[in-house]
Specification:
The chain is mainly α. The protein contains 7 helices and 2 strands.
Length: 201
């Protein structure tokens, strides 16, 4: 999961900044929007912690089990709230992917980085088909999010308000925490980061 130190630090920084912005979004919006922002903040900070280069800070053996339990609970929560909003199904996939990566890394002793990824996958009993399916999911998600971001940015600049990627009309949001194009950009960023982490697994 951990590539060269520089790319690891960049990925960690990107995920941490994204998580911080998602945390900012929890202060505004409807109850459903705040729940989604909390889930995305957890995902951003969790991905940032997992992206720290292992050569610099080697996580303890119990750390991966802690990640698995934490994101397992997040997956159950996302499944519960998916009854109200389809966006929580994406959170369910993301949390499940984090559990999967945590289990693989725990079983490999956390050595699944750089040129040893395939050996670690074999040693850990990782499922290449599952990894491939997750990669396809995130590739499609990134492309779809990127395509949605272009019209959302144009619509927001034109004076409309966009909620969940859909233009609803009205005045543009004033606060940083309620900018729809930034929320979509954060989701796109986390999708790219998740794809990169799965690719290096």
């Amino acid at each position: 999961m951990h590539g060269p130190a520089m790319s690891g630090w960049l990925l960690m920084t990107l995920c941490a900044v994204t998580g911080a912005y998602c945390l900012l979004r929890t202060r505004s919006g409807t109850g459903e929007e705040r729940r989604a922002a909390r889930a995305e903040a957890l995902m951003g900070f969790g991905m940032a912690a997992m992206a720290v280069p292992a050569a610099v800070v080697a996580p303890p053996a119990w750390g991966w089990a802690l990640y698995a339990v934490l994101f397992g609970a997040a997956a159950v929560r996302a499944l519960w709230f998916s009854r109200r909003s389809g966006h929580h199904l994406h959170h369910l996939v993301g949390s499940s992917a984090m559990v999967y990566m945590s289990v693989v890394m725990a079983r490999s002793g956390g050595t699944g980085h750089g040129g040893h990824a395939s050996h670690a996958m074999a040693a850990a009993g990782g499922v290449p088909l599952l990894t491939g399916l997750l990669l396809v999911y995130y590739a499609v998600y990134v492309l779809r999010s990127g395509a949605r971001l272009i019209p959302v940015t144009a619509a927001a600049a034109g004076g409309g308000t966009v909620t969940g990627g859909t233009l609803t009309g009205g005045t543009p949001a004033a606060g940083w925490g309620t900018r729809p194009e930034l929320a979509l950009a954060c989701r796109l960023t986390m999708g790219i980061a998740m794809f990169a982490m799965l690719l290096a697994l």
